[in-house]
Amino acid sequence: MELRFSTWQEVAAYLQNSKTIILPIGSTEQHGPNGLIGTDALCPEALAIELGEQTGALVAPTIAVGMAQHHLGFAGSITLRPSTLIAVILDTVNSLVQHGFERFYFLNGHGGNLATVNAAFAEIYAQSSLAQTAADLSNVRCKVKNWWEAEGVMPLSKELFGDADGSHATCGEVSLTQFAYPHSIKSAEMTPPIAPTGPFYDAADFRRRFPDGRIGSNPSLASPEAGEKLFKQALGGLEKDYAAFAA
Ligand code: NI
């Protein structure tokens, strides 16, 4: 059940049975020569919608722009500053608390969001601990789950792509978008085949170290068939994880 396609009466009825909501969160950032700029938002959104179908859970609109300052050296990337993303998460959660939601399951598509999302959770709990709000937040619980950390996904990626999966513009995430959005499949030469790895700091540093945007990956190995396998594996793991959180 998707919030954007629901009426307020349907949401009110949902709240009679569940106080849990799934919030896909991603990023709008370059994903190398054949990866879509929306990859990190499209992956958790597609999984969240199917997870909602399977479990009956309500799915909030995707927070599609995240913390991606290091990608700004590439055309089309958009970032929120960490403080802005914290404010977006806080306002979203506080709005939903007004209606009676208590459990917030953030399904994440971008590793670069994690520190900020966890800082936002700490702010939410601090509101309660410091009695900064009239709303009762004592039962509010937040969780962030990376889709690629759902049970069995990383071993499957390893089996499918070996060391070519990489850590940005990965074969796995590109495959997942190719499965979910087959009309947007791109192909490109990868030079070198496997991209370099290493640390990075700001956008200029990232561009210098990773000139085509990939880190450690060869996403020319991506395929919709691999994406379907990863999607099904992730969905199974997420169903269990969501059920445990909602219980
Ligand atoms: Ni990504």
In words, what does this structure look like?
This protein has 247 residues and is of the alpha/beta class. Helices cover 45% and strands 8% of the residues. It has 8 helices and 4 strands; from the N terminus they run αβαβαβαβαααα. A 4-stranded parallel β-sheet has the order 2-1-3-4, sandwiched between helices. The chain is globular and about 55 Å long. The model has no long low-confidence stretch (mean pLDDT 97). Bound molecules: nickel (II) ion. Nickel (II) ion (NI) binds at residues 31, 39-40, 110, 173.
Features:
247 residues; four-stranded parallel sheet; globular; 8% strand; binds nickel (II) ion; alpha/beta
Quick description:
The chain has 247 residues and is an alpha/beta fold. Helices cover 45% and strands 8% of the residues.
Which helices and strands occur, and which strands form pairs?
Elements: H1 8-17, E1 20-25, H2 39-55, E2 58-59, H3 82-99, E3 103-108, H4 114-129, E4 141-146, H5 153-161, H6 171-180, H7 203-209, H8 224-246
Parallel strand pairs: 1-2, 1-3, 3-4
The structure holds nickel (II) ion.
The portion of residues assigned to helices is 40-55%
Sum up the overall morphology in one term. globular
Q: Which molecules other than protein and nucleic acid are bound?
A: nickel (II) ion
Extract low-pLDDT stretches. none
Give the biggest sheet.
4 strands, parallel
Return the average pLDDT rounded to an integer.
97
Taking the alpha carbons of the first and last residues, their distance comes to 18 Å
Give the percentage of residues in beta strands: 5-15%
Strand order of the largest sheet: 2-1-3-4
Estimated radius of gyration: 18 Å
Q: Give the SSE order as H and E letters.
A: HEHEHEHEHHHH
| Class from secondary-structure proportions | alpha/beta
Secondary structure: number of strands: 4
Count of alpha and pi helical runs = 8
